[in-house]
Amino acid sequence: MYTTVTPSWAYTLRLPHDPRSAGIARSTLRAVLRGHGMTRLTDTAELLTSELVSNAYRHSRGPCALRVRAMAPERVRVGVWDTNPAIPAPFTEAPAPPGPDAEDADDTDTDTDTAAEDGRGLLLVRLCAERYGAYRLDGVHRGKLLWVECGP
Question: Assuming Cys at both sites, which of 74, 79, 113, 145 could form a disulfide with 67, CB separation 3.0 to 4.6 Å?
């Protein structure tokens, strides 16, 4: 009989509404993964964490929290809670297949570069994460939680 043992560790870091929070989250994540022998996941997990924390900073006015949790050997889940209950479109829509004119569609946008780039970070998260999800929180910690998983 084959038995899978799930690692039993998790870390939570509360971050202030500060533009430096993404860098602090990345540093913390690197230390956690190194400490648990999961350095192979660092590049992808760091990118995903940076995008989630940056999204929390841009779209909420309060603090956020980073949670890093082992899901299995060589698999980690990163979740970011923030005070804005709105779940962003990339996490609520089914991914659209890239069409032949996908690259040209951005050229017709007459808004500013910032508006054209809005949401691209979370789309990147969806493309790089093996699993992802989101849900609203209504209890003591109101807002939402976006999470991603990555493995080898």
Answer: 79
